[in-house]
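Worked example (supplementary).
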Amino acid sequence: MYDLLQKLFPICRSLTGQGVRETLGIIADHIPLRQTELPTGTKVFDWTIPREWNIRDAFIANADGRRIVDFRQNNLHVVGYSVPVDGWFSLEALQDHLYSLEEQPEAIPYVTSYYAERWGFCLAHRERLKLQPGQYRVVIDSDLSDGYLTYGECLLPGESQQEILLSTDICHPSMANNELSGPVILTWIGRWLMSEPRRYSYRLLFIPETIGSLAYLSQHLDTLKERVIAGFNLSCLGDERLYSCVSTPYANTLADRIVNQVLPHLEGRHQVYSFLERGSDERQYCSPGVDLPVVSVGRSKYGTYPEYHTSLDNLDLVTPKGLAGGFGYVRRCIEVAEMNRIYRATCLGEPQLGRYGLYPTLNIKRGAFSMATLRNLLAYADGTNDLLAIAGITQKPVWELSELARKLEGIGLLRVVEPDSMTRAMV
Amino acid sequence: MYDLLQKLFPICRSLTGQGVRETLGIIADHIPLRQTELPTGTKVFDWTIPREWNIRDAFIANADGRRIVDFRQNNLHVVGYSVPVDGWFSLEALQDHLYSLEEQPEAIPYVTSYYAERWGFCLAHRERLKLQPGQYRVVIDSDLSDGYLTYGECLLPGESQQEILLSTDICHPSMANNELSGPVILTWIGRWLMSEPRRYSYRLLFIPETIGSLAYLSQHLDTLKERVIAGFNLSCLGDERLYSCVSTPYANTLADRIVNQVLPHLEGRHQVYSFLERGSDERQYCSPGVDLPVVSVGRSKYGTYPEYHTSLDNLDLVTPKGLAGGFGYVRRCIEVAEMNRIYRATCLGEPQLGRYGLYPTLNIKRGAFSMATLRNLLAYADGTNDLLAIAGITQKPVWELSELARKLEGIGLLRVVEPDSMTRAMV
Amino acid sequence: MYDLLQKLFPICRSLTGQGVRETLGIIADHIPLRQTELPTGTKVFDWTIPREWNIRDAFIANADGRRIVDFRQNNLHVVGYSVPVDGWFSLEALQDHLYSLEEQPEAIPYVTSYYAERWGFCLAHRERLKLQPGQYRVVIDSDLSDGYLTYGECLLPGESQQEILLSTDICHPSMANNELSGPVILTWIGRWLMSEPRRYSYRLLFIPETIGSLAYLSQHLDTLKERVIAGFNLSCLGDERLYSCVSTPYANTLADRIVNQVLPHLEGRHQVYSFLERGSDERQYCSPGVDLPVVSVGRSKYGTYPEYHTSLDNLDLVTPKGLAGGFGYVRRCIEVAEMNRIYRATCLGEPQLGRYGLYPTLNIKRGAFSMATLRNLLAYADGTNDLLAIAGITQKPVWELSELARKLEGIGLLRVVEPDSMTRAMV
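After joint prediction of all chains, the assembly is encoded as:
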């Protein structure tokens, strides 16, 4: 994963343009990816697909012709969606077009202006202070013209038409955690899913943030509402500090229940954020009338770590270990979704576990209390509780319960209940 | 308000009689008041309208003819509903008819005997101890005879037939907090409501406690059950110590939700009492089968402050500032009822707030987290939450949300959902 | 009760056999008991009635013929359901058949092997350590042959066909708390119930643990599911240390509500255990598809006290005072079930309590707050709350409320609502 991340890192991505296409092309080397292009001007709910932005070069040069701010060194130097410019400016006139962070003087900030025409440069505050009065040559060799918004999707069918939605953003330029960690991990999740039997179908989306999820929703809303039983938006998954999620509006969906089961078992600290602290595409997936059961999963959450949206969000912040942890978190969520079944005991009363070799035949002191988890599973397998519910009651991890449930199913003491038959009478 | 309170203070009110009529007459100088008279003997649920009580004079005089307890000095000196008496009594015989408070030796207690024939005098315990053995002339020039129970009501129609019920008691003699603060504030609330556009209709009741609310309910129950969406019983609203409410039996009505929103934002301490600590007309409004959504609103609650039901509940305890605070509390409850609407977002997904000037077009660091309250309002405006619910979720005051909601309604991003159409599908 | 316990103590009981019959015979001297015998081989759900076990004698003798372990001295010395044996064994060979507790060297453990053929002896670890190498004569004069499983039941009809289920185990040999306290107390409960008017019918079961409750359920499940409104499994009720219960799976049945009301008012400590800590016949009564509202009631719970399942669970551990406390606990649960009615106020508004002598006619200070419990009962008697619910709201014991309710019913201010008419409109 780290190799892929290093390969994608230098590409200048934005909402639209060649950087997005190039990124999707590289991902498509690993998983089957269908790319869709929506033309500029297409209405998506309250929004309109903007013009396509492409940039070849940009710099500020001093009177000597030396490039003192250079897009080729770091694509964060240019405000995203900058209109073209080519001219000489006094330092004073230039200042209105410069962005830097006083409180982080070494960081180049990440700035965009997608929906208002502007041009600008971002630079470290320390560099900005060094600028001397005088004339500067300013060039942005970009164009904003009718084109397309591009996204990629990978559909992996499973036994059921019911789907798990996995979504991540491919619109950020050279930043590693926000947001190359998401696409890289989702690519690897896709590879892993292709190698596994799948109970559910999977829909993996690589989209530009906000406008991309809105565009996708505007085209697929009915299908998604019909099929998606849980979804995970992947964002900022590559550092080593924390595991986190952003809940759905009422924190009551299957996706919420899954992350709440998974998080406490991951190594290290974890934090559950309320929907009030949302900030990524869960904003669209969970909006009124869309109402998809999608949580955001991440490590250090966007907006909460100091390197966020600056050049410090780089290949030092994201590590192979951090990515592996993020991958493990997402995979575990998917595994829990796959294993979370409703079981029902096949006989009335407790079964005679001794007959199946599951209970000691000799009643030695406290023997009655052995096999507690297995027996608790049987006691609550009444055809209404899914394994996540029983995990909550028994305070045992769902994967331990699932292993026992499959064992009990194998010897005929439990059987799977499909949710749509939950109301059928006990036999 | 304080002037009105001073004017009403000396009048000798009781369950019935001229004092009540005189009080209603003065209130009617400020708001349109319809007065109703119910004849003695009328059955109201388990009760019967008692005889009308009127009193002209009463005193205890010593052998020298000097009045040592004098109704003309303080109408609390006579037990309410005392039967007439005129005779000479030894101190010993008189003692059975005297009421005083050992623990508050300077206070004249407030005592009534509405439903059992008695006569009696109330006096400061310190005065009582000064009484010398001997003969005393005792006169109560009262009469108890068939007459009427009188109450006043003021109906202020609004856009909707749905009503807010406001009720207060006019049966207490010269006490300022319990209960002239209620009638005085309700009069001013009436004046204020008359000057405002009203979404709801308002029913203002000035009634004698218990028998008056029962009488009113027995005549208007069906109408009230059909129309009243929230009610407030006003009692003890004029001191400066505290703001409080008494919840409905299950603390789950719109009225409860309103006071729970308003109380924490008032200046100073506040306290929510359970229905188990009720004591005023909420006892009747919330009784089984009546079940109106009526809370009691007050400052220091009846029964909890030392001056309660004594001559110390006077014009020192109630202040202009205290009354203004009580008025502000009730007005704020009404304002919250008026503004508490259900809104629904008009578009799917988040709207493009930048288009409406509601979101920065430049994505500077942490910019994504600006306009949080407005965006949270949109996120939870799903046609099921009223603004009070969203206030609870977002921990923002409902008036801040309401202002934003009207702004968003103005630019077409929200629309009002009438509760009866809440089940219609999202478009 | 203690006499009965002493009489039953020496009998060698097991799942089946003469000891059970003899025990039931003695209980039948006190209450009418119908005994049922189910033949060996009968299928009961996932189980099969085992062969009947009877034992006449058993011992280990040393080379001198001296009995060093003797069934006649304590029937715990033989592993329950031991197959017959008669032979000479070296100490080494014998060790595989000996059971003792290192951590309780003076206690003979209680061991059974109902469903796997074995023979064995139990002895104090201290005695075991004294055994010298050599040959030992080992005799168990038992037989395991087709026969019957025996249980007793006592049905006490009441006004209603709705039933309270009371169940206890009669399969333990000479141990006093687990489990002679249960049968002895249930016998006395039966005697007491016979002497009382009964609103509900009562079903008292004296059964062998697990297989007995399964057998009974397999024969009576439909009847039980139709009639039982609450049930109590009696186990370990005779010591003086604690009062406890084991809740139903979701801790939400009438039986749970009853024990939660009763426990805090018993003298001494109490503890509520979750269903996860179950261990007696509540395991069967509450199993999926059976779903009877049965809690376990006890004093120190099985498995939690050091004497449990050893010879130390004897007539020192169980005391007359302990049994009396256990009896009182169970009786109080039954009394609460009997008194727990739904009442509805007969008039709208508060009744005029002064008319009934239930309220002071003189309004002296704070007088309005007298009779609070009676008035709270009236305020919440809305035809939906049973007395247990009102006890929860008012934090008053249900028996205090019941006494007031009967008083109010007597003067016509409350009337009983049958649960099936709860939806009828208030008049």
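Two points are worth noting when inspecting this output. Confidence is low (pLDDT under 50) at residues 421-427 of chain A. DSSP finds twelve helices and 19 strands in chain A.
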